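User: Run a structure prediction on this.
Assistant: Running it now.
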Amino acid sequence: LELKFFPLPPEERARLLREAARAIGRVRRRVSTATQGLSDRLAGLGKGGLLSYGFLNFAWYTLAIAVQWRRFGGVSPGIPEGTAAAVAMSARKFGRVFLSAYVGSQVTKIPRLWAALVLAPLGNRALRAAER
């Protein structure tokens, strides 16, 4: 890692990178613990919890991919549709779109779990109504 504006001696740079890695590890463990606790509570609510979380995930990915697809734009005007170049460009675009939707999904996982906990009784009610 070369820092052009703030040059550091190699040992100082290595120390800072180790500290950053430890800090990232602590944050990752805290988020994992929070996510696991919420997932366990949601699992305790049964099929209604699963239904509500599944619905929220479906809504999130549908909205995120639709918004990002428009954000990244269409095929370049100079590339004729149906050609190998257009297919390759669309594949790259889909990769960027899906990656950004996935990253957004990871950022919003805890709020979606909380929302699923709130909506679980509604999911149970919907399942009971569908069984009749």
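The mean pLDDT is 85.
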